[in-house]
Every structure is written in C-alpha cells, then in structure tokens.
Recover the amino acids of this structure.
C-alpha cells in the first residue's frame, strides 16, 4: 500500500460526516412505531411537508430559538421526536424534552420515545439501555432528559444544549 493510500484512509476515517438536516435524517433512518402511529414504517417528510421547515430550522447554523404556534394533531410531536433522534444519532448533545407535567413526561418517554428508539436501528445501537431510565436516556456524547414544566427540580442544574417543549 502506498503512503498516499494510507493517508487517504486515515483522513476519510476522521472526516466529519456530511451535513444533514433533521428532515434528511428522518427520511433516511426514522421508523414509525406501530403503537404510536397510524401507519408504521419508514418516516417520509413528504407526507407532512409543513413539518420540514420546523425540523430543519433546528439543524440550521445561527438559529437559537424556534417557536411554533400550530394546531394540535398535526405532527408536532413526531417532528420533535425526529429532532431527538437526530441529536442521539447524528449530532450528539445533552437534550431536555419538557412536557407540561412529570406524569406526561413519563408517558412521552414510555409511549413515544422508547418505541422510536426500539424501532429505529440507528438509535437502538446508540442508546445505552443499562444506564437509561424512564426520565433519562444516555448515549455517547449526550443524553435526553425528560422533565415536567410543573417540576422546578426536574428543570434545574443541568447542562443542556437543546431544549424541546411540547
């Protein structure tokens, strides 16, 4: 093997992954779970194109705050799950997912997040089941912490890069 070939191999192995938006990640990897979706299988942003802008704003440089004022039952929570999956798999970071109450955070974790992790292979291999709990999912480079807006203790004293509120 020539020295130049060795250098190419080394550089290709340490190069950052290509830029990917949240919707591109979801279209490539996200699996919809049968218990949390009317139609299980591969996520397709084209089936809900109104979500593309909201999801992709999260992965856009220079955007620090996103506020969406939309009606209920239009897929906002699924979009937030795609953002969580993106940060578990592609851009690891400490993330907090805030629900109105701790009880709702528990239900979100059990009914929505856990099935997505189970059914999306890229997430299954990254989330450490032994170190994860209902309120805290651990993965290399970060974690997802579930919190309740009604619980100051669940919101305090945490270094968080991404905060999602549903």
């Amino acid at each position: 093997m020539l020295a130049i070939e060795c250098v190419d191999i080394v550089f290709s192995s340490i190069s950052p992954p290509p830029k990917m938006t949240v919707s591109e990640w979801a279209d490539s990897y996200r699996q919809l779970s049968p218990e949390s979706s009317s139609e299980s299988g591969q996520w397709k942003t084209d089936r809900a194109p109104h979500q593309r802008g909201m999801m992709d704003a999260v992965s856009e440089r220079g955007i620090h705050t996103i506020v969406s004022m939309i009606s209920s039952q239009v897929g906002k929570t699924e979009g937030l799950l795609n953002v969580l999956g993106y940060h578990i798999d592609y851009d690891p970071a400490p993330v907090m997912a805030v629900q109105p109450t701790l009880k709702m955070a528990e239900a979100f974790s059990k009914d929505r997040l856990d099935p997505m992790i189970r059914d999306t292979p890229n997430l299954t291999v990254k989330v450490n089941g032994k170190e994860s709990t209902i309120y805290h999912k651990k993965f290399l480079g970060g974690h997802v912490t579930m919190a309740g807006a009604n619980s100051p203790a669940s919101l305090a004293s945490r270094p968080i890069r991404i905060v999602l509120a549903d």
